[in-house]
Amino acid sequence: MNITQPKLTSAIVLLVALFSIVACQQKTVTPAGTIDSRVDSLMQLMTLEEKLGQLNLPSAGAFTTGAVESSDIAKKIAEGKVGGLFNIKTVANIREMQKIAVEKSRLKIPLLFGMDVIHGYESVFPIPLGLSCSWDMKLIERSARIAATEASADGINWTFSPMVDISRDPRWGRISEGSGEDPYLGSQIAQAMVRGYQGNDLTANNTIMSCVKHYALYGASEAGRDYNTVDMSKHRMYNEYLPPYKAAVDAGVGSIMASFNEVDGIPATANKWLLTDVLRKEWGFTGFVVSDYTGISEMINHGYGDLQYVSAASLDAGLDMDMVSEGLLTTLSKSIQEGKLFEKQVDDACRRILRAKFLLGLFDDPYKYCNENRAKAEVFNAANRAEARSTATQSFVLLKNEGNVLPIKKSGTIALVGPLADAKENMTGTWSVAARFSESISVLEGLQKAVGTKAKIVYAKGSNLDEDEVLETNATMFGKTLHRDKRTAAELRDEAVRIARNADVIVAAVGEAAEMSGEASSRTTIEIPETQKELIKALMKTGKPVVLVLFTGRPLVLKWEEENVPAILNVWFGGSEAGDAIADVLFGDVNPSGKLTTTFPQHVGQVPIYYAHKNTGRPLTGKWFSKFQSNYLDVSNEPVYPFGFGLSYTTFSYGEISLSKTTMTANDSIQVSVEVTNTGSREGAEVVQLYIRDLVGSVTRPVKELRGFQKVMLKAGEKQAITFTLTKDELSFYNSELKWVTEPGKFHVFIGTNSRDVKQGEFELK
Ligand code: BGC
After folding, report:
1. Whose alpha carbon is nearest atom 12 of ligand 1?
2. Which of 82, 141, 150, 168 lies at a CB distance of 3.0 to 4.6 Å from 196, suitable for a disulfide?
3. Which residues have CB under 8 Å from 566's CB, separation 6+?
4. For the segment 51-80, what is each residue's pLDDT rounded down to a tens digit?
5. Crossing angle, helix 382-395 and helix 137-153, to 10 degrees?
């Protein structure tokens, strides 16, 4: 036995190797068998250098068409030093690169082609923070499905999305890229996005691999400054920040991106606890981990070691692929020679990347995403744009509508003013790298199309984005110019007031430019820029009704606006079709139903402010201000708009909560119901929200936690009983030993239209 067994094994290895060599002489390496055995056979043929090549993910950079073949990247691909590329667009360019990989490199291993397809491809959907305000998982999944269809038709097979970082800090620009402050909602959105991108079959040519990011805790960067340090308790991580990443893993996400920040003093990129203990051992993740852009070499600046050390530390921690640093490619053989790493560790990483390529079916057809006819038919087509338009209407949040100023009529004269009114390039918002800016629909165009000859639209810019020209330049990068007007602020304002005086209603498209949020776009002042506020004040003085169409990528401080302006429609950045979608809602063809997924503070000094806070030992129970209670001298603890808030053109009333019983056991469930009535005069959708409070815990529990929601459409006058089922899953949490536990005791349950305005019930878990 002992003698024959190794012989048999070597015979099999020899056969597999022979088979693979034969396969190699064909177009690509296509050994038969299960994915794992195919990966193993291929790896038998690989040199250490070729394995390291698979771990390397350079940016395709700015080569121009025609120069592809002679670029430095092309040379590296031919040498087997590249596992994938990103930042490359169009079937022609991608095919050219893939051809080099599968025809010129020794082992003909196809490349992954990644891109930040974050909220749509060319048909751009609302920025993720906006999309989350739809609270509609099917809609969100469909937006990712369409993004995947378009991207895959254009050659892409891997997207760096979804971004699921919980954030409670509106100063942080990247809050725009996530789903807000809540881990329960964030987890459901993470799963919907992964399902949308990956579908049921990754080998199909219209699905792409998803990469959940940024693992982990990136949304808690200190002071809201991008790339900054993060430090938090494990208890908070497990209960509040890690759930969405885990949810994506549970949904089968193929890859995960390590974050720039450190976690517990060790950069996430080289954090073994995070990348191996939690991700692989605890959660059972089997895909591959990629660093963020230069995430490996940046550890030199973190003060974690030189390039050789940080590269070895990353691999040892469980990282598989190196975005841009080339630390793994250039230093790991030395570390292996010096006995600092085992080659087996490189094998493991390489195996995971090859596995992903097999899962995508790239070995069977490396050009499966390269079909110009598909690109022509499926990218930015009428159906996708229509879907982007209706999705955008679902992301808008009506913050105020005093005296039912909205919807406005398609008649008379409408004055449209503001720096964002005629701003095509800004409609798609941050991270819309594939967008066709010149074809986006501006508010001006959207309103004009909607009214046709029925009403007159008069337009004036009214103000620049900001008086500070440098800030405006920095806030309108990547071709998102606002075409700065050289006139003075007073001249611009006067012109706007002149046209507004003769109008029936004023629509002011104001707020942030697209690149005022997103990566490296943190702000310390989170208000509408002063010059725009001056414009709004001047418009208000005309005595005409003013509607703010508010563009933003983050929660803003809108205290003055809430107190003074009659109507505010928050439209985030709605995507390529935003202008049409805004018209749909302003004129009432669509009734708004979005609800905030982040708290809007009344002062930046309240940050971090979020609904699921702890009670403290001295909660403010009575009136503000109270000495020796947890509050501020200068502003109350209240936000301007709480989590879950959003109005409609109709109104809803909530009955009292009824419970199917008042005690339950952990093996049991309890039904919580409420009757919701549309008390207005038109049909509308309402997001009914359920929160719990665990009154006593072995670790203290938040004052409210979202544990259910249902979006229902009700006709005018219609009533509906809405029922939620609570099981132990909704009542459990991670205790101080990070164990998932269900603790008996009393719970409050709340149902309402937002996290503040709720009805309350109570039950006991025995
Ligand atoms: C961002 C990532 C992005 C990557 C690739 C980085 O700067 O943090 O979110 O996926 O670039 O473009």
Report:
1. 116
2. 141
3. 400, 401, 402, 403, 405, 545, 546, 547
4. 999 999 999 865 444 455 556 899 999 999
5. 150
Task: Determine which helix (DSSP H) or strand (DSSP E) holds 354, and give its type and residue range.
Answer: helix 343-359
pLDDT in tens, 162-207: 999 999 999 999 999 999 999 999 999 999 999 999 999 999 999 9
Q: Are strands 733-734 and 719-726 parallel, antiparallel or unpaired?
A: unpaired
User: Cβ of 660: how many Cβ atoms within 10 Å?
Assistant: 14
Q: Using an 8 Å Cβ cutoff, are 328 and 289 in contact?
A: no
Contacts of 295 (CB under 8 A, 6+ apart): 258, 259, 260, 267, 268, 269, 323, 325
The CA dihedral of 490, 492, 496, 499, to the nearest 10 degrees, is 110
In the chain the first and final C-alpha atoms are separated, in Å, by 59
Token code pair at residue 503 = 């109008």
DSSP string, 702-731: -S-EEEEEEEEEE-TT-EEEEEEEE-HHHH
Here the tokens at position 1 are 């036995």
Question: Which is the closest atom of ligand 1 to the Cα of 214?
Answer: 9
Predicted local confidence at residue 406, as pLDDT = 98
Q: At what angle do helices 327-337 and 343-359 cross, to 10 degrees?
A: 140
Specify whether 154 is catalytic: no
Closest-CA residue, ligand 1 atom 8, reads 292
Tokens, residue 448: 């004009």
| Ligand 1 centroid to residue 300 C-alpha, Å | 19
Ligand 1 contact via 561 beta carbon (within 6 Å) = no
Catalytic residue among 116, 165, 182, 292: 292
